[in-house]
Specification:
The protein has 153 residues and is mainly α. It is 51% helix and 0% strand.
Amino acid sequence: MATYTDVNAFRRDVWPAGANVDLKFVQYAAELSFDVINASLDKVYSVPFATTPGIIEKISDMLSRVVAEWLVSRGRLPTVGEVETQTGMLSPFKMLEALRMGEMDIPGETRKAATGASVNTADYMHIFDYDSAFGHVPDPDWITEAEDRRSQG
């Protein structure tokens, strides 16, 4: 399965020296990290990334490390709160949230166009009567006003 973490390099360079950990734990953690990152960023970036951006590799490495440590030491997956407690300010979940919300960007990657609830309705003429919350029928006065504004330029 695909991963953003190079499992062999991760095990050699990131995992503590002398730690004798079965590769299957690291591989599983890296695959889980891949799925979490893609699910988290799917609405704002085209995932999976063709080439792994540096920030995504770092997030994947951090999450993979925490997950693998929990699998080896505790025999279970950590909760989001446990990951955040263990990683502190460099929480991979906080970083993913910052990428999702546009507080951070991925260099070289283009964000998807805004859709859904984040669409801005500035400069749109609303033609529904605001007083009629249950009926939601077009208000003829608003339609006439909209037509007048459009004809004036």
